[in-house]
Amino acid sequence: MKGGKSKTESKRGDAKLAVNKKGAPAKARKPAGKGKAAKDPNKPKRPPSAFFVFMEEFRKQFNKEHPDNKAVSAVGKAAGAKWKSMSDAEKAPYVAKSEKRKVEYEKSMRAYNKKQVDVYLIKFFIIAILSWWHGSLGLLFIVLMCFCFCWLMSGGRSYWWR
């Protein structure tokens, strides 16, 4: 037959489509990438939403009423059902607590970002001095521009100009 496959060829199948069995060699894993960047432990945590503020109180109450329950999913389902059945007036205290925590978070983030800008200003200043010392004026210009940009991003004030 022209262009046709014999019975033995069609039974073999394609090696790429074959199912990996016990005796077959395992596929090679992808090389490990850089992965996620390390989180800064000093960075403030994001504030919880109104529902999660509600969950803090509901979890304590639910565990008192159902001490034998060990399933986390049961607590979540019960809390979700209760949250949906609550009116806006009943949700208001949790929303207020959530907004208060959000304001505190934004305040701490401003302080954190200001501190980060100050650290970058110091680094740029050191690089500017080193590039000037080694005589590379092009690099000095770029570093000074970055320095000015960071200074402006900090609102024109920094630890050094208080």
From TrEMBL:
SUPFAM superfamilies: HMG-box. Keywords: DNA-binding, Membrane, Nucleus, Transmembrane, Transmembrane helix. The chain crosses the membrane at residues 117-133, 139-160. Residues 1-15 have a biased composition (Basic and acidic residues). It is found in: Nucleus. One of its GO terms (molecular function) is structural constituent of chromatin. The keyword Protease does not apply. Residues 44-113 form the HMG box domain. GO terms for cellular component: chromatin; nucleus. The keyword Magnesium does not apply. Belongs to the HMGB family. This is HMG box domain-containing protein.
